[in-house]
Design a protein that fits this description.
This protein is α/β, with parallel strands linked by helices. It has 10 helices and 11 strands. It has a 7-stranded parallel sheet, sandwiched between helices. Strands 1-11 form a two-stranded parallel ribbon. It has a two-stranded antiparallel sheet with strand order 8-10. Helix 2 (76-98) packs parallel to helix 3 (117-128) and helix 7 runs parallel beside helix 9.
Length: 319
């Protein structure tokens, strides 16, 4: 059985040891389709309240939000404290439980280039100063990054491991409109190509099961994302959580979640056509708590992984 090329394998090959991503959540970051810049309410599947920083220091920053036009940041010192607090706590656990030796600081929640350049610079450089940090992974949207930030990250990439994670979701504009995404597929393509032209590493997030998409459409999204030159990929099934616009559609019966069988079929086909050089960071997603409405199969990640490996077996592959 051939092991699928995973991101963990990529990092171990490059750095010669276990490298773990430390997921960080900084207060003050938001999203342009939440704050009204391009839309309101966020993507239909996004439960905005779930993106609160995982530190007790969050409440003192409540009501504080940055964007690309913010002139000042009175809470930068507090944000830097949050960053250090979270990194120390999470990296310590990863060392103890998983034997992690080095780290990528992953700016994870919301849109992590959607702030004044000087704020981004201070946060990124602080993160790179921590012990055993070899680089950054920055989750963002293609409509929320400036050329100035891109060029700065390209400079950092000369000596550090710098990744940008773009939410591609779908290459169909009609789908992006249905989920209230707030930008076009052409915009994602443009900024992925710009990032690649600067020598940056790009991870693309793909969602299978978006409203009214056929299996052919989902597979076409994978094909185009690969053609754009992404270096790594995260595959997600669309699941429904409470307090979202998608939850309303599900309750009214106007949205039916993807079945596990269809998800497996699209996922396996996407993996098979994936260029060998593209590493895989995630093959599924879900949540096992009271916020999940559907589909029920997204509750048990271990079961999902077993079924994915069973589906991969006839092709001589394993995850």
């Amino acid at each position: 059985m051939e092991q699928i090329y995973t991101f963990g394998s990529y990092l171990k090959n490059k750095f010669g040891c276990k490298v773990y991503k430390v997921g960080i959540n900084i207060s003050g970051f938001t999203c342009p389709n939440i704050d009204g810049t391009v839309a309101k309410g966020g993507c239909t599947f996004c439960e905005n309240d779930s993106f609160s920083a995982s530190t007790g220091q969050t409440q003192e920053l409540k009501g504080f939000h940055l964007n690309l036009k913010s002139k000042t940041n009175p809470n930068l010192d507090k944000q830097l404290q949050q960053l250090e607090f979270q990194f120390n706590a999470i990296s310590k656990r990863q060392r103890q439980e998983y034997g992690a030796k080095k780290f990528l600081v992953y700016f994870q929640s919301f849109t992590n280039t959607y702030a004044p350049f000087e704020t981004l610079k201070a946060l990124y450089e602080k993160a790179l100063s921590f012990p055993d940090v070899v680089g950054l992974s920055i989750g963002t949207r293609s409509d929320s990054i400036t050329q100035e930030t891109l060029e700065y990250l390209a400079e950092l990439n000369l000596t550090k491991e710098i990744w940008i994670e773009f939410g591609i979701q779908s290459v169909y504009d009609e789908t992006l409109e249905k989920i209230n995404r707030g930008h076009s597929s052409a915009n994602v393509r443009e900024w992925i190509l710009k990032a690649k032209a600067k020598g940056l590493n790009v991870c693309g997030h793909l969602i299978f099961g978006l409203p009214d998409e056929s299996q052919e459409m989902m597979l076409e999204t994978s094909k185009q994302a690969y053609e754009w030159g992404i270096d790594s990929v995260k595959y997600h099934p669309l699941y429904v959580v409470k307090k979202t616009a998608l939850a309303n559609d599900f309750t009214k019966g106007t949205f039916a979640p993807i079945t596990e069988d269809i998800y497996l079929d699209v996922l396996i086909k996407s993996i098979i056509i994936k260029p060998q050089r593209v590493s895989v960071q995630r093959v599924t997603a879900g949540i096992n708590d009271g916020s999940l409405l559907a589909p029920d199969w997204c509750r048990d990640k271990n079961s999902q992984i077993k079924k994915i490996n069973m589906a991969l077996k006839p092709f001589g592959l394993k995850y």
